[in-house]
Task: structure prediction
Amino acid sequence: MHRYDSLLPSPAAAAAVVNGQAGHLAPVSGNGGGAGDAAGGSSMDVPRIGQGRKRRNRRILWIALALLAVGAVTFALARLQPAAPGVERANVWIDTVKRGPLMRQVRGLGALVPEEIRWIAARTEGRVDRIVIWPGTAVTPDSVLLVLSNPELEQSALDADAAVTGAQAKLVNLKAQLESQALERQAALAKAQGDRDTALAQVEVNERLNKDGLIAPLELKKSRIAAKVLADSFEIEKQRVDFVRQSIAPQLAVAENDYNLAKAQAALRHSQLDALQVRAGMNGVLQQVPVEVGQRVTAGTNLARVADPTRLKAQIKIAETQAKDIQPGQTASIDTRNGVVTGQVARIDPAVTQGTVLVDVTFAPDATLPRGARPDLSVEGTIELERLADVLYVGRPAFGQEESIVGLFKISPDGKEATRVRVRLGRGSVSAIEVKDGLQAGDRVILSDTTAFDAHERVRLQ
Result:
């Protein structure tokens, strides 16, 4: 028991532990507690007063320093800009801002079309019996393209011929009747004239006889009355002859008009009958035959299209936003993929169709078109608007419109990153556009579509 008792702390040490000062006591000596106690406690350490407060102060200091460090790091991180996204240099279009002359142009796609086109329409209803010439064949004005049939029209032509014959017969008969009436009136006039002259001669005889007392005065008076009656009859017959002669022309005119009308109707029917053989009507090339054999067509239906392939013009479709400065007479270059030919703007369509304006470009009469130029050939046209002498310009951005403000990424001098800048654009051309503000000559900018980086002000070039 004495060996274990020597390992226990003394009552004073236990009290120190109870008071919270056990940590400051020196370890108990292994020489035996009894001997130490007997010596008056000289083997125990002296407790250090105030060490707990110092540890608390040190803890508070370290915590304050830690909070200060966290705050400084948070502030520094808040001041940092977000990481710029990277973009492959080979995947973007980079151009350099230049100063100098600029040719303003607009460009569009189109096709060659004949200047003279004739659509041949059916003049009457009919059925397509035969297609004589197929598209692509050269034709003359008398070339028969199609043959139609119409039995009703053939019968109408026969009826019209019969009507002409009838009207002609009526006219001949009327002429005979009128001539007969004129001759009858003329004969009556001659008889009336003879009777009048006889009566006048009788009056002269009676007057001589009356002077000699050979006839009674009553007989003389009767002869004079008879002469007057016959003279009046002669005048009436003269009026009848004049009336007959004057009425001949109107009656013949009516009959002749009926005859001419019948002839015109017959000519129309025969013309329609002849039109069943559809002819080209001009020198050129047959382009289209939009009907089939056996098809029933009505009057006015387009049966064929003929064009002159030697006189072509270009019809170019220009975007409506770029067509405002186009004027007739401006120079245009037409690329036929087999050569370029120069022309002039001849007409500008006043209406917008599907976002484009149709522009006609004609060529000089002595202009030689490249080989292979033919109607409906796809071409590309470039129209020169004006020449700017000295302007600041750059390649046209993907979404840069004339007279607008856009955001472009300007490349830094070291070429490692690009920063968004506001650029005010001016007049534009096909592949270049004027820079009014925001860039200087020699600046390099990204012209590609950068909508994927709208949320960023900087990008890194890789």
